[in-house]
Write the structure tokens for this entry.
Amino acid sequence: MGTIVYYTTGLLVLSVFIFIWLERKYPYTKGMPVFRDGFWVDLIWYTFIQSYFLKIFIFDYLIEPMRRSWHLESMHWLDHWPIALQVLLFLVIHDFYIYWFHRAQHHSKLLWRTHEAHHSNKEVDWLAGTRSHIVEIIINQTIEFAPIVLLLGPQSPVVPIKALIDAVWGMYIHSNIDVRSGKLQYVINGPEMHQWHHADDKSVFYSNYSTKFAIWDWLFGTAYLPGRKKPRVFGLPYAYPKDYFLQHWFSVRRFDESGLVERYPLFRAYHTSRLRLTKWLFGGSGWARKLGLAGPPVKEEAQPSGPGVPSRAAGGSGPTAGVVAESVAQGTESAI
């Protein structure tokens, strides 16, 4: 498997540059900077650091003990299948699962806490899809790769091939590219539908759950594609932390990030450390702004959808605007 990893890694890096170029050439949302707000949190913390440690934890401490205990690969159930067919099998099965789990996350207050980080970017581009809560990654990647390793073994080329497809397709559906795929969008998912999924718009709060195959949304009545109309606002309808660690703590206990900055000098020192480090490295705050490294957050007000209208703050229960605002302020309810 060692050789194929070099190829898949090279293709992944090449895909990054292709998506960046396409976003500049054919933007879905015009004027979005390369180093948007939250870019470095997504790249450094979620893409590099979190992914590295979770890979070790999932494969070495979760999947490998199962493999040694169950010995399913000795059954050789899929060994005679062509690699392409093996990849396709696990691709379709996992995508079907992820549709329903993703849908459940949007309807469950508890599961939403593991998913809201993914919706917190106010600007959606090729990198935005990497922002996912630790618990969400552990659940989904264990369920995704455990069957492959258990049935085919840890050295199966299906593992890096499937990982490459996941990464490239994830970048594609989140990319800020104005794709017009026509009838293909009924089968293959792309930015046309997934950009809407990340919109702060009540019309799509419970729609477009598909990852790779859009056909699940069309089959199960959750598709939303209003022609060439585009979302006006992205992200969450309530204030959300910008710091990696605070984003995870927010899933456990609600708090007002800007209020903490104002009240606690120690927290303020930590919160502005990236800006101060950038100013020290580059000799001014101008570069910090260019690189998307912002200071303390601007306090945002909750933007409920209105009385009787299902809202992201409802977790599927559809409270009134007053209840949404109160839950955000008190930090006692899960918000979607």
User: Anything to note?
Assistant: Residues 244-330 form one domain. The chain has two domains: 2-219, 244-330. The two ends are 41 Å apart (CA to CA). Confidence is low (pLDDT under 50) at residues 295-310, 313-336.
